[in-house]
Amino acid sequence: MTQKIDLTQTHDVLGAYHGCNFNLIRHKYTDQATQCAFDVLDEKIVTGYLIKLAAFRHLRDLQRSENNDFSYHYDIDEVNRILKFASIAPNVDTGEPTKLMDWQKFIFGMLFGWRDDLNKKRFTRVVLSVARGQGKTYLMAIYMTYSFLIESMGLSNQDFLVTAENYDQTGKLYGYIADMIRKIVKEQPVFAELAKEDGLVIHDHSGITMRKFNNNLRPLSFNAGKYDSYHFTTAVFDEIGNISSREGTKKIVSGQVKVPNHQYIEISTSYPDPSVPFHDEQKMIQQAMEQDFSRDADRTLGLIWAQDSLDETFKEETWAKSNPLLYLKEQREVLLEGLRDKRDSDMLAGTIDDFQNKNLNLWLQEATNSYLKLADIERAKKKFDNIYGRPVYIGFDYSMFSDNTAIAFVFPYEDENGNPRWHIKQHSFIPFEKAGSIQAKEKQDGIEYRELAKKGYCTITSHPQGLINEDQVYSWILNYVYSNDLNVMFFGYDAWGATTAILQMENNTEWPLQTIRQRTSELKDPTKFLQKGLIESTITRDDDKIMEKALLNAEIIEDKIGIQVDKAKATLKIDVVDAIIDAFYQAMYHFEDFGIANDKSKQVELMTEEKVKEWFESEESGLLGSGEEDDY
């Protein structure tokens, strides 16, 4: 295990697999879940990149556990127990148990097989995603029924949770579990006796109780927000991909801290808005799996069945990547025909993105007039901290009503090959007067401003009524520029933003300030330049959630003159994009002969008094010390 495998750049998981010797693992671990992992990597079945990563991680962890340099082990007996239980768990639609497929056995193997030093479940946090209609409700009903009936044996005062955004969604999974337990108790004598002894009571809507031990399975909705007082042993959050706030998850997880053998599962398909926490968590666990050498996410499990590309919309031979039920022979043709019909009807209706979103489990922007694609925005992320002494172009978008005030900084630079590049940073000031509180503002915008403020991406306004404090904005900008010794080449702002902060800058700095009218004739060129640069990877950006969400929210409006960005509704923030475009009004010309940076007549104007003095003295010194004489 001396190999340091990092797939974050190459993404060559199959190459890494074939470069390792798994003979010992293949011989020793013959359980069905591990066999599925080998089948994935031996390409006996069609799977996407993220499932290949999960299979590779499992095999590498088995190697680590054999070398005694790993805190976890794989218990085949635990895997066999859950699979044995699943073999008697009835599908409530048919009344009979459904034989599990290999991919479903792989899920149960990962959930129950991996254990820590105390033989408790290794994975305390699970991200599980698969396309619509793949039987995840049945699978989670088996999981929760087993946890409630079997894993709670000998324990008292245990709480179990099933939840979703609203009660209708919560009730669907809960109803499945309640019906499954009823059928098991009715048809299996050993469970009938156990239910009687434990005082099992099943309520239609309010939960399931073991009176003797005070163990309770509770159906609670996210909208009700009543997680605080519970300490859940096992929790399942269904369709979490539509939740923009982390508040519910925080309450669930914080309540589990002192509960032994706890596990929290988030399950969902993809949704139109890729800026939600569920998508962030998928990206996080992808990176953790790619960094095979790292132990940072050893207690988080990611199992994501999804297509690898939008191009696969028309490659039905790949659809098993997101629809693993296609490997069920008796259902394959019916499911395949249904997927074809959905794709074709969505194409005719101009809503193909719904098919890609829900049936191929791909994150994308739903709006056809989106300014940028998710992939272009994500690809642009780059660490860029060496800004001291650099030239910078600044854009300023002042807050109106509930909007944020945004400052954008564009840093021109050259890559290792001398090619022109631009990097974007931003800082936002967050008002909350209209929302009523910063907590309400976070929920409204779907952005965790308080957490991002700790990382330096924003400042919560200091105004007692939650309005923008212009003195605070002005002081922050000056401090940022002067503490980093930035050479301000240009400061562009909306003509409507002639605020006190702008007046202070005009009076107290020598920066070249310019108003930019927010109309297509003025904005079309920098708007197109920013879009093209992010698509072509000539523009990079910080890994900043405020900027990311603004870029995702931006939509295109077009007239006879050109394009401009706008937003679909007031709560979708694009203030940062407006500020960036203002900065690019001149930043896009930085490397051109006619740009500000190369205009000799402007160079002295851009200097401070100190810089002018330094330049003059150095020039004078150079002339006096040259030893040359003028010949008249």
Structural write-up:
- The protein has 632 residues and is α/β, with parallel strands linked by helices.
- The protein folds into three domains: 72-306, Rossmann fold (3-Layer(aba) Sandwich); 311-359, no CATH class; 374-612, 2-Layer Sandwich (Nucleotidyltransferase, domain 5), CATH 3.30.420.240.
- 42% of the residues lie in helices and 16% in strands.
- The strands form four sheets. It has an eight-stranded mixed beta sheet with strand order 5-6-7-4-8-9-3-10, with helices on both faces.
- The chain is elongated, with a radius of gyration of 29 Å.
- The model is unreliable at 620-632 (pLDDT under 50).
Spell out the blueprint of helices and strands.
Elements lengths: L12 H6 L4 H6 L3 H10 L7 H18 L6 E2 L1 H11 L15 H12 E2 L9 E5 L6 H16 L7 E6 L2 H21 L1 H10 L1 E3 L5 E3 L4 E7 L10 E7 L8 H10 L6 E6 L8 H14 L9 E5 L24 H21 L2 H8 L14 H6 L11 E7 L7 E10 L5 E11 L7 H8 L3 H6 L3 E3 L9 H14 L3 E8 L5 H9 L4 E4 L3 H17 L2 E3 L3 H9 L1 E4 L4 E4 L8 H13 L12 H4 L5 H16 L8
Parallel strand pairs: 3-9, 3-10, 4-7, 4-8, 8-9, 11-15, 13-14, 13-17, 15-16
Antiparallel strand pairs: 1-2, 5-6, 6-7, 11-12, 12-13, 18-19
Short structural description:
The protein is α/β, with parallel strands linked by helices and 632 residues long. It is 42% helix and 16% strand. β6 (208-210) and β7 (215-221) form a beta hairpin.
Radius of gyration: 29 Å
Structural class: alpha/beta
Under the CATH scheme, which class of the largest domain? Alpha Beta
- For the residues shown, what is the average pLDDT? 90
- The CATH architecture category of the largest domain equals 2-Layer Sandwich
Sheet-strand content, in percent, reads 15-25%
Give the termini distance in whole angstroms: 79 Å
What is the CATH topology classification name of the largest domain? Nucleotidyltransferase, domain 5
Spatial order of the strands forming the largest sheet: 5-6-7-4-8-9-3-10
Helix content: 40-55%
Biggest pleated sheet: 8 strands, mixed
